[in-house]
Amino acid sequence: MIQVSVSGEISAPVDALWKVIADFGAVGWMQGIDRVEVTGEGVGMVRAIYAGGGDTPVLEELESLDEDARRLGYTIPKNNPMPVSSYRAAITAVDLGGGKSRLDWAASFDPAPGAEEAAAKATVEGMYGVLIGWVKAEVEGG
């Protein structure tokens, strides 16, 4: 099992950051999304993310939500666009004080069949860098 973690500092209070990432069904901060369909509420809910004009969504399931720790966990049980399997991720908003916060995005996964471990790890780390950048722009710009 591969473990990765990527962090990014946000020039906004942690509550503003948490508000954006805690709403699992609202991913308006993601770029290139055509639409999102949500099934259920709270832990166990599934978001189907359609992008690039395709008919096959990436399915992400909310596994945990801890308001006090400002942390959520999710899986991508179907149609993961990255070369990984058994993917499990956690996003945490951390208070740095002084109106600043940090977004920690971590995951564990196996390389998909036929994928090399280094390539799978690099893909996930690269994607997290992009996602953190989008969240940063949303929180700091809003």
Give your account of this protein's structure.
The chain has helices spanning 14-22, 117-141; strands at 2-10, 33-39, 46-51, 58-66, 71-78, 84-97, 100-111. The protein has 142 residues and is of the alpha+beta class. It has a single domain (2-141), classed as 2-Layer Sandwich (Alpha-D-Glucose-1,6-Bisphosphate, Chain A, domain 4). It has a seven-stranded antiparallel sheet with strand order 1-7-6-5-4-3-2. Helix 1 (14-22) crosses helix 2 (117-141). The termini are far apart.
Strand content: over 45%
CATH homology group: START domain
Task: List low-confidence stretches.
Answer: none
Mean pLDDT: 94
Determine the CATH topology. Answer: Alpha-D-Glucose-1,6-Bisphosphate, Chain A, domain 4
How many distinct folded domains?
1
Identify the CATH architecture.
Answer: 2-Layer Sandwich
The radius of gyration is 15 Å
Number of strands: 7
Note the run of SSEs as H and E: EHEEEEEEH
Would you state the CATH class? Alpha Beta
